[in-house]
Specification:
The structure holds two protein chains of two kinds. Chain A is an alpha+beta fold. Chain A has eight helices and four strands; from the N terminus they run H-H-H-H-H-E-H-H-E-E-E-H. In chain B, helix 5 runs parallel beside helix 9, helix 6 runs antiparallel to helix 7 and helix 9 packs across helix 12. The chains are: A alpha+beta, B alpha/beta.
């Protein structure tokens, strides 16, 4: 995540390593994109031609896949990623108000997500991959101030 | 003697600080010189009680919950180590009423211990002793229907793949559990990953496949990590690999991670994604059973379908078929979610009513307000009004009323819910998640949002209601898959049963 926080430049050897490790897989594109994003926090545009070449795909095909899936980032996130669930179960207990609160607070890259699978303890959010459920405005405020302190 | 505690490692427990509770138990035990060990088990599914702490005693496992880290010192003071009395004490876990009335077949092991502790593989061993046709026959006779939502008989799908000649066949598990209100796949993968591996291995034997894929959504990082660990352990144990349990038959599984696209839960979009493409729905036919992943015959089932299979092989089709009602045989892990007092996963035979489930087990709303609407079957499922809460939860009884059971997710809304806004969200969600291949879904969903906005703002309301119904009709009949084809279910059910939320009185809605 440090690479993401300091934005580009990134180490291109990371991309080469991921390609070397995963290009032999059946349908290797998604695993390669995940590997790059897990390591760097995003998928840099100049990784696209390298991945395309390795998999014998066009750059348009690789770019098309990156842009299709909500998960992949084409630029580093601005601060820690806070995913706030907007789906029905969280809506039934005030999830939308939490989203507004998080967006107003700033300090995080707030992203909508459609279900974290924590629906029996809604509303739920995920901060940097860590789930938090039974959220209340007060608990979210605590979480956001913890982030600000980092 | 060492005292054993159990604190769940399920993502739902972690989301309410189970790690903090486990650490505090360890710290307190150390300070008090008590000899304890803590097993991080899967979840029991009693999610309103998480973090649930269980302590092994001579009388059985005594549960406490929901436990917060700051409760732990007082628990120790109360004789926690030996199941002592405390305000959070719930008694023996298996005797908690909402647990006791369940009939856990697929989730029998989930929550008992470490998810990666060795298992006996009894279902797979039985399958290895009988011919492939007999495996298919057993699954056919069990009446098992696909648990992902479409409820297609699993045995028929397997038979089609078995009878399609090909040098390479695949078994694919759909763990792209995107429906709001569902978490059974996640809980099973985190709590008993070997059961899924076993079910897939049995399917591979039945159809002659050598390779399996599990497509897990990226929103489930804990499930992904647990499943990867389970795959490594299963390979080391000789269950997966060149020779399944020494049979000489090769089968291995790879975990693949989704990309946050809801439509990839549709089986053909998932295949495209596994092939490294955009998750765009394919036209059917050809059926994936004939021409699926990389053009080869492919069994695709949901996590819960595969998870039901080891029980069927181990105990027989007759045993499994004895549960359930009508043509819905076996059990379904129902998931109670949203505004619910006692939310969680409850595995029960088909046939009970929504009223029993939501009120007797779930205890009504968390807010204490009256229940207004219950959405069954995920974001593409209808809002079920009170007049239908007594229907038996069974695939066909629901279909007959234009409802869907889907993946068993049930989301409860109290009387503060605005059904017009929920209908609008259904259209908005479809617009966000549509793969874009067919027009009714891609364009219809955006137009749907606009039309609902005009209805709410009373811009020529009666005409716009007619337009919305017409649009829904086009989407229902003209979409390529369930994304566009079922988005009208929540929209129309909201409009039909809660017209006042759209600014309509009942007669106007009927006249429209």
């Amino acid at each position: 995540m440090t690479a993401a926080a300091t934005a580009s430049p990134y180490d291109p050897r990371v991309v080469e390593r991921v390609i070397a490790e995963r290009r032999h897989l059946d349908g290797a594109l998604m695993p390669i994109l995940h590997g790059v994003q897990d390591a760097l926090g995003w998928v840099p545009a100049d990784a696209v031609p390298r991945i395309a070449e390795a998999l014998n795909l066009s750059r348009a095909e690789v770019h098309g896949v990156i842009s299709y899936y909500h998960h992949f980032r084409e630029s580093p996130s601005k601060g820690p990623v806070l995913q706030v669930c907007r789906a029905e179960a969280c809506r039934s207990v005030g999830g939308e108000a939490l989203l507004a609160q998080a967006q107003a607070a700033g300090g995080c890259s707030v992203e909508p997500v459609y279900c974290l699978g924590l629906c029996a303890m809604s509303p739920a959010v995920m901060l940097q991959g860590q789930p938090h459920a039974r959220m209340t405005p007060a608990r979210l405020a605590d979480l956001l101030s913890d982030v600000a302190g980092i | 003697m060492t005292i054993t505690f159990y604190v769940s490692r399920d993502a739902a427990a972690l989301a309410v600080d189970a790690d903090g509770v486990a650490a505090t138990i360890a710290g307190q035990a150390c300070a008090r010189k008590a000899d304890v060990q803590t097993v991080r088990n899967g979840s029991r599914g009693l999610l309103w009680l998480e973090p649930l702490v269980e302590v092994q005693t001579d009388a059985g496992r005594i549960a406490y919950g929901p436990v917060q880290a700051e409760d732990v010192p007082s628990l120790f003071d109360a004789g926690f180590l030996h199941g002592g009395a405390h305000a959070l004490r719930l008694g023996i876990t298996e005797e908690i009423p909402e647990f006791e009335r369940q009939q856990r077949l697929s989730f029998a092991r989930c929550g008992l211990g470490d998810p990666l502790a060795p298992v006996p593989w009894l279902g797979l061993k039985t399958a290895l002793e009988i011919p492939p046709e007999a495996i298919v026959q057993e699954v056919l006779e069990s009446g098992l229907r696909g648990r992902g939502g479409a409820a297609f008989p699993a045995g028929i799908k397997w038979r089609t793949v078995a009878q399609t000649a090909s040098a390479q066949k695949y078994v694919v598990c759909n763990a792209d559990e995107g429906d709001s209100g569902t978490f059974a796949d996640r809980m099973l993968i985190e709590g008993d990953p070997y059961l899924l591996i076993e079910g897939m291995a049995i399917a591979a034997l039945a159809v002659g496949a050598s390779k399996g894929f599990v497509y897990i959504r990226s929103e489930y990082p804990h499930a992904i990590a647990t499943f990867e660990a389970a795959l490594r352990a299963a390979r080391e144990a000789g269950v997966l690999g060149a020779s399944m349990l020494g049979s000489g038959i090769a089968f291995d599984i790879e975990a693949r991670v989704g990309g946050g696209s809801y439509v990839c839960g549709e089986e053909t979009a998932m295949l495209e994604s596994l092939e490294g493409k955009r998750g765009i729905v394919r036209a059917k036919p050809p059926l994936p059973a004939v021409q699926g992943l990389f053009g080869q015959p492919t069994v695709i089932n949901n996590v819960l379908t595969f998870a039901a299979v080891p029980t069927i092989l181990e105990k027989g089709a007759e045993f499994y078929k004895d549960f359930g009602t009508g043509r819905s045989r076996g059990t379904l892990p129902f998931q109670l979610a949203g505004n619910i007092k006692r939310g969680g996963l409850f595995e029960l035979p088909f046939g009970l009513s929504l009223r029993e489930l939501v009120f007797d087990i779930g205890g009504g709303t968390a807010s204490g307000r009256p229940v207004k609407a219950i959405q069954v079957g995920g974001p593409l499922g209808a809002y079920v009004p009170e007049s239908q809460w007594d229907l038996p939860l069974d695939y066909d009884a629901y279909t007959a009323k234009g409802l869907v059971l889907g993946h068993g997710g049930i989301v409860v809304h109290d009387d503060t819910a605005d059904m017009a806004q929920l209908a609008r969200f259904a259209m908005e969600f479809c617009a966000i998640e549509s793969c874009g291949k067919c027009t009714p879904c891609r364009i219809g969903s955006t137009r749907g949002v606009e039309v609902i906005d005009r209805i709410v703002l009373n811009h020529n309301r009666p005409q716009q209601v007619r337009l919305l119904r017409d649009l829904c009709d086009t989407m229902l009949a003209g979409s390529l898959c369930a994304m566009g084809g079922m988005t009208p279910y929540p929209v129309l059910s909201a409009l039909d049963h809660y017209p006042q939320d759209f600014g309509l009185v009942d007669d106007t809605a009927e006249a429209a």
